[in-house]
Design goal:
- This protein is mainly α.
- It has one domain.
- It is 87% helix and 0% strand.
- The protein has helices spanning 5-33, 38-77, 84-113, 120-143, 146-176.
- Helix 1 packs parallel to helix 3 (84-113), helix 3 runs antiparallel to helix 4 and helix 4 runs antiparallel to helix 5.
- The chain is flat and about 55 Å long.
Length: 177
């Protein structure tokens, strides 16, 4: 059975998002490896760099190209560009594109300089941003209502803020004990 454009779009989006999530984890592991002994650090960082490069070039890049191509095709075919919820979705997709190219820049720094000049906390926030954007896109597509999507995102972001606050509160409490 032939894949339809819609199913190809869903598969490419899933691949792209999964690649970005895993790539973010590889950046965090790379940063954590800097604390290892020299021999272990070099081996771990070399392996993580190889994995990240293959992931970005083999999954993330084809994923973004297919996602954008099939997404535009579907939006034109179904006349979605006139609908307000689509503007919310496109804004979130733009955020994904920014994260994609930011990940590419971090990967280049990882390959050439063997360090990532940002904190591990910032890398974790960037990694979780992929999930937040994904949830926002799902809200926009499922509800097909721009206002409802925005309110759902605000509620979801509030839950994330509470989660981060609790996580870092527990982390600080454990360090002080």
């Amino acid at each position: 059975m032939l894949l339809t454009i819609k199913s190809l779009h869903i598969l490419s989006v899933m691949s792209w998002f999964a690649g970005l999530i895993y790539l973010g984890r590889l950046f965090i592991y790379f940063q954590a490896a800097a604390l290892d002994d020299d021999a272990i650090r070099a081996a771990r960082q070399t392996q993580l760099t190889l994995m990240a490069r293959r992931l970005y070039n083999g999954i993330c890049n084809p994923g973004i190209i297919l996602s954008l191509f099939t997404g535009v095709w579907l939006a034109i075919d179904m006349d979605y560009f006139a609908m307000p919820w689509m503007h919310v979705k496109l804004t979130l997709v733009l955020g994904f594109c920014v994260l994609h190219f930011l990940s590419g820049r971090l990967l280049k720094q990882m390959i050439t300089h063997e360090f990532i000049p940002v904190s591990e906390t910032l890398l974790r926030i960037l990694n979780e941003s992929v999930t937040v954007l994904l949830v926002g896109i799902v809200f926009a597509v499922v509800t097909k209502d721009a206002i409802e999507s925005v309110f759902a995102m605000i509620g979801f972001l509030a839950l994330i803020a509470i989660g981060f606050t609790l996580y870092y509160g527990v982390k600080r409490t454990r360090k002080s004990n």
